[in-house]
Amino acid sequence: MTFKKIYLTIAIIPLVLVTIFVLNNITFSNRKDFDLEIDALKEEQSLFIHTRVTLTNTGKQPLTNIKVNYGNTSETVALLEPGQTYPLSPPAGSNLQRIIATSDQGINITKEYRTPIKMPGMMGS
Question: Which H/E stretch holds residue 9?
Answer without folding.
Answer: helix 2-29
